[in-house]
Amino acid sequence: MLGIAQIVAVLMVVAVSPLLWGITQTVKARLQGRHGPRLGQMYWVIAKTWTKETTVPEYSSWIFRLAPSIGLAAILLAALTIPVGGRVPAGWPHNLLTLFFLLALERFWVGLAGLDSAGTFGGLGASRVSTLGTGVEPALLAACGILWQVSGHTEIAPVASWFATRPLGALPWTLAAVSMGFVLLAEMGRLPVDNPDTHLELTMMHEATVLEYDGRLLALSQVAMTLKFSVVIVLGWVLLGPNLPSIWANLAIRAVEVVLTSVALGWIESRFSKIRYFQIPAYLSLAAGLGVLAFYLIAGG
Amino acid sequence: MFSLQLIAFGLLTALLAHKRQLSLFLTLVLSLLILAAGIWGLGHPVNAVAASPWLAFTPLRSWFLLVLGIVAVMSSWYRFGYHDHERSTNFWMPLFLVSMMSVILAQNVWVFMTAWESMTITSFFLVVTDHQRSPVLPAGYIYLIMSQLSATFILAGLLIMGSHLHSMNFGRWTAEASTLGLGLKSWIFALLGIGFGIKSGLVPFHIWLPRAHPVAPAPVSSLMSGAMIKLGIFGMMQFLLIDLGPSNRLWPLILLAAGAVSSLLGVLYALMEHDLKRLLAYHSIENIGIILLGVGVMAVGIDWHHPLLISMGLAASLFHTLNHAIFKSQLFLAAGAVEQHTATLDADHLGGLMRSIPGVAIGFLMGSMAISGLPPFNGFISEWLTLRALLLAASHWTGLLAVFALGVAMILGLTGALAGMCFVKASGVIFLGEPRHQVNHRPIPRSMTWPIMGMAVITLALGVAPQPFVHIAGSVDPRVALSAVSFLLPVKSTLLAGLMVLAVGLLTLVSRPWRVREVPRWACGRVPDASMQFTSASFTKAIRTTFALIYRPHRNLSKVGRSADFPAQLLYRGGTVPVWDRYLYQPTYRLVWHMSRQSTRLQAGPVRLYLTYLLATVGLMLLLLR
Question: Which residue, of A146, A287, B188, B440, has the fewest CB within 10 Å?
Fold first, then answer.
């Protein structure tokens, strides 16, 4: 029963992720006075890309051809480790550290593929994505530390129930939430760190890594991008949100939460501009610092 | 016990150095025997107190013997195809192996120090194999001097220990050393910690490492980085943790801090390197730091009497020792193959080697994933264990100590991400993309590719099914009877690896990446060429500016041409400051040099001056002994 619920939940996350992406884009467009694309536009984009001819740049090796599969597989596995409904069956891997290592695996292959494309943009994207990763990981570990403090291990599911039964104090919770929010924004590749809408080489990160991709391989990358977006949102809510005894109630709550988050992201993206690339370390250090502060408050000064 | 026979066998092999094939074969046999001895030792735990007074097996020693054995077997196999035909390597290699084995198995101070010194000397001669090339001899001398410094500290520490325990037998030490006073323990900790720290290349004693490893032949670098520097860790674990037991509570914190500093600075310096072997040497510093974090957690457990921390720290550090030995020698052997293939190690001259040496490239790539701690490779398991051990320590403490432990864990996370970036750079710039310069390619024999691939398979196997090894590693210290597997369970590495293979396979089948068309890459309408690709310097530009405080980068842009406003050519030179060399070692060097110059005033005088000294000494003695 639990296993079925978990698989259904993960499939739901996979299925709705282009829709969540669409919600954010639409809200953003409306706030900017544009009509914007349809809500389901991302599904059509992926389907269209899939049917196009697949080309690869000359000089690229099988690394370039395999990287989208490995990247998407890593994100899928990361999605599987999240107890979307608050609980997982016994023996299910649901470890937060493992999840972060899976995200690092995806980043590693994105970087390799960028360098393998033998062009300027690939290297540029690879360099930027890797640099971003170096700032994200310490902040994520601060989150791990907080979870360990409240639960005694880094498995996600019992942590979630801990938040329901004995909530954190208001101040540590807020600090942890702001810290997680900052770092997850960076991890999902949205403003203020990366702008998924831009094609200007001065600003783009993710777009630069997929510039040489086409056809089916590009479609895989697009699925991975939208999936990572929703996985990160769900992860944030599983860690910080309320948790009820019933799995289905939890799933319903998650659904409301992620839709509201997508709307909020659209609002954020139309209110804030992208920060300079060289200021990203400061932004992520702030996230990590807030996380450490929350940890200190929980660990008892 | 057959350890003495093994030593005799090693000496015999050294004497047959003039017959190349026979010598290579016998060295391989010797390595296999060392490996067998390690495995045998793990299966036969011996009571160290009752063992032979010269050489003895304990679980901890057997583990390090296993590490040495695996690296030695692969390096010896690799030497069949390696281009180094110097007779001196054939002579020193078996001696080096035998002395490392004796260091591990030594049961008293005299055997230990003799083996330690002969390990230093044999490795020095191996490092300077290629002594006609320009930087080799100075690098070798720096290595020798640092090693002698290390031996001095170690000897001092061991003699203090021995004189207070009234025994030079390590078996007795294990039984009795925990009764020593805390003040004395601190002295021993400082002396041995510095001594072993120098040998394992901890920052700030690391300067010999990025000099000596790159100039040595690849199998030697592989052995030094994979096995020899681990013996410093071995010494710390054996003498400082297992023998001494609880000591001053400041020491675990110092160990953790030293581990964090070494791991972070090691990887940061590695990022700025474009010489492949120097890059790998800096990564050895980083990984020794990570191992030391595990050792530090173990020390915390010993001092705070927390058995779970002890066995977690032990499992994390020992398993990372094994893992690092394997993937680092895999990477060094691959680097040697690249050098033999292209006659250069400068990443910015290479590129696209995936097509000409695919086996080496895959081996290097798998090693890169392992050293970056990515699933499903072994580095993932041991970094995961280390992180978990650190978080456990953080939850054991409160307040600022907890924040300290979390900070160390965060530094480890940063280190992991930087290592990933560095190996994206190394594999990407060297093996992927378009060749940056036209270089002549020499074919690589199979006997060089197979050991690399063999190591790659081991790294994968240890990452997919780590449980038995972690179990052994966690139970090496007989005083902690906790099963280490229990805390490894949540990682589910086998399941993860299976799911990953399944997912990647399905996605690949669906996306059919073999049915693609090759097109020119996008170059904004210009004709694409190799110089458009990112180099190792441009790839790490943002890191250089972010960590400017550590790197102190400098750049110099000069204009060539008649007009200052419209120069014909711009020359860019950039680099970073070697901080430790400039601000620590060069002043020390100048001070020592200055003092020795001053001392010549006393020494280089006429005979009557010496007679005066004699007279004054005799007078002083008469005065004192009156």
Answer: B440
**ipTM, 2 decimals?**
0.94
Find the residue in B nearest to A224 (Cα): B507
Residue B504's pLDDT is 94
* A2 vs B214, residue with greater confidence: B214
CA nearest to B427 within chain A: A112
Contacts with A126 from chain B: Cβ below 8 Å: 424, 428, 534, 539
pLDDT at position B142 is: 92
Domain that holds residue A292: 2-299
> Which residues 545-574 of B have a C-beta within 8 angstroms of A?
545-546
* The two structure tokens encoding residue A227: 């999936």
Positions of E strands within B327-477: none
B418 at interface of A, judged by CB pairs closer than 8 A: yes
Who among B395, B520, B540 is closest to A148 (CB)?
Answer: B395
User: How many residues are present in chain B?
Assistant: 626
Domain count, chain A: 1
> Distance between CA A1 and CA A100 in Å, rounded?
27
> pLDDT for B520-549, tens place per residue?
888 888 888 888 888 888 899 888 888 888
DSSP string, A157-179: HHHHHHHHHSPPPHHHHHHHHHH
- For chain B, the first-to-last Cα distance in angstroms comes to 56
Listing DSSP states for chain A in one string gives: -HHHHHHHHHHHHHHHHHHHHHHHHHHHHHHTT-----TTHHHHHHHHHHHSPPEEETT--HHHHHHHHHHHHHHHHHHHTS-TTS---TT---BHHHHHHHHHHHHHHHHHHHHHT-SHHHHHHHHHHHHHHHHHHHHHHHHHHHHHHHHSS-BHHHHHHHHHHSPPPHHHHHHHHHHHHHHHHHHTT-TTT--TT---TTT-SHHHHHTT--HHHHHHHHHHHHHHHHHHHHHHHHHHS---S-HHHHHHHHHHHHHHHHHHHHHHHHH-PPPPGGGHHHHHHHHHHHHHHHHHHHH--
Tell me whether residues B374 and A62 touch, CB distance under 8 A: no
3-state secondary structure of B50: coil
Q: What is the pLDDT of residue B599?
A: 85
By CB atoms closer than 10 A (0-12, 13-18, 19+), residue B564 is exposed
Residues 6 or more apart from B105 whose CB is under 8 A from it?
B3, B55, B56, B57, B61, B65
